[in-house]
Amino acid sequence: MSNLETAPEEVVCEQGRVPAGPEMLVPRDVPLGGPRAMTVRRTLPQRARSLIGAWCFLDHYGPDAVGASGGMSVPRHPHTGLQTVSWLFTGEVEHRDSAGFHAIVRPGELNLMTAGRGISHSEFSTGDTVTLHGAQLWTALPDAARHAEPGFEHYRPEPVRGDGWELRVFLGSLGGDASPVRTHTPLLGAEILLAAGSTLELDLDPAFEHGILLDAGELRLDGHAVPRDHLAYLPTGSMRARLDAGAADVRALLIGGEPLGEQIVMWWNFVGRSHDEVATYRAQWQAEIGAEPPAPGDASGPPRFGSFPAGQPAPLPAPALPNVRLRPRG
Asked: Domain for residue 136, yes or no?
């Protein structure tokens, strides 16, 4: 998914302070496009915390009536230096990218796109989708992998069930299950379902930071109430987590990973390491789609963001860069 804000702010991604207990990250509403467009609830990045492991972006949306909101309608747009993770609860989304991959994103199935040095893709709700509900996440690629060739992986995890609970582990390992999907830093991603009144105790990797996003129901994490749509953060050193469902069934997403330990700058749909690098990505995208002339001195060569099939909707132009230099920190 693209970040469709017309004036995206600079995001300085750095490790935040270590809280005494679970830190509740409050979502903010972000409209994706015009007045009828979908609105998402964004919990990463934000001023309080930019990263959880290598996870650098989390949009949570729906359940949306597609007939009213228009659903997901994101024409071709670019990415660099990241992996996108699509996870749906309801509905379907058609994915198409410049590396030649075409897939339907369905509930309970992971679709992971690696941007590497550069990719472009589009995402549209399918015609028979009535309700759209899910999450879009990004992970920042480490320096050693961020210039790799783009790619795409699909995986449908089998559920792991216990007394009143169910896990679907789509990245990393948890609860005795492991995903075969390759990541470039140690990561964890799982959907958790809890029946009302049930309890689940999880063993955690103490080298990981973790975040738990509550999608539905009533949840207490280690005795602390988690508000709906909030992302509860646990720092490194946490070895166990207790999840208690209240009077309503719970659905949550668990993410985690080792701290990235690198300085990154994220602006619009690019992850880079400096202002000049991000500005170059923007200029190359604008030139490739014919929105702006190539920068003087640009060497000719294959397009960074690849080619797209004919007959697709017009690509998204990049917004203007801010009037200040983007600053990496860490």
From this structure: yes
